[in-house]
Amino acid sequence: MGQLISLLANFLNTASLAKFLAFKVMLFALFSVVLPVVLWNFLLEWVAAVLAFAIGQIQTNVGQNALYDMQGLTGWIAIQLQLPGAINNIISAVGVRLVVQKLLSI
Does residue 89 carry a pLDDT above 70? Predict the structure, then answer.
């Protein structure tokens, strides 16, 4: 009876090891083949959408300056990325650091 239990435990251990190795091989294939292709396609779609939006924002009128439109697009992107708030926090932190540094040196 003990030998039968030992054989069963050995079989289950071998099957688990085979399942584990198969799972790792599938994950490796997924991350090395499928994921880069999906990310590349997503990146290309995103760049195409951004360029289409940018081209739509730039006016091709002769009397109009293209730099003005690019500043508007840049401003829109900065607001979407919340860059003004981030720059405000950085400048405030630098100011606080300078004040604390001056107070500690006194």
Answer: yes
Which residues lie closer than 8 Å to 54 by C-beta, 6 or more apart? 73
DSSP one-letter code for 65: -
CA separation for the pair 106, 100 (Å, rounded) = 10
- Residue-level pLDDT at 68: 44
Is 66 in contact with 55 (CB distance < 8 Å)? Answer: no
CA dist 66 and 30 (Å) reads 45
This prediction's pTM? 0.36
Q: Which residue has the tokens 């091709």?
A: 60
Handedness of CA 55, 58, 59, 60 (dihedral sign): negative
Amino acid making up residue 97: R
d(CA 105, CA 44): 53
Mean pLDDT of 30-51: 85
CA separation, residue 91 to residues 77, 88, 96 (Å)? 20, 5, 9
Distances (CA, A) of 24 to 14, 30, 59, 95: 15, 10, 53, 51
